[in-house]
Amino acid sequence: MKFRCAHCGKTADRPAGHVNRSRAQGLKLYCGFRCSGLGHRKHISKAALVERKRLYDLEYRRKNLARIKANKVEYFRRTYDPAKARIERKKRAKAHAEYCRRPEYRRWKSEYDRQYRAKEFGPFAEAYRLTVDLNREIKGRASNHEIKWQNQTANKSQFRKRQAGQKERSRPRHRDRRDRHPAALGQ
Hints:
By secondary structure, the chain is mostly helical. The protein has helices spanning 16-24, 33-40, 46-63, 65-79, 82-100, 103-118, 125-141, 144-150, 156-170, 174-180, and strands at 2-4, 11-13. The chain has three domains: 1-43, no CATH class; 45-80; 86-170, no CATH class.
């Protein structure tokens, strides 16, 4: 029996029982496996398929987190070789050091460190960050001499020498005289 393919539109020939059964069940008729496969495809964009897979993976990881972690730990124990890992780290060390010197990385790392240190203060993290910024601004406006004077580090060695000299001069000398006095010696 002749019929028109639901995908490509060409006429094809199939046994009458096959065609009648498909029409009775409301199914589409195709000329071959290729058109059947193409006709049954759901025309979903690549982006939609990727998003669907991402959502499925999130749900799967949420449900099976303990098993996934246990498998990863077991695989790491089974395959980790410290000597090989050391060699790999050495291969990447130069590139990593160069990456860490990049200005955009340094800016990111600086901000990350600020947030990490502030996290210790919990709900007062923002107040801590503002205080640090304020101190930095104040110190930026003060001269080096003013900062040393406030921290009492200006002329430090000279100050210590003076203190030591004052202690020497303030020590009583009459003990030495008493020790040499004949009455003190019991004579």
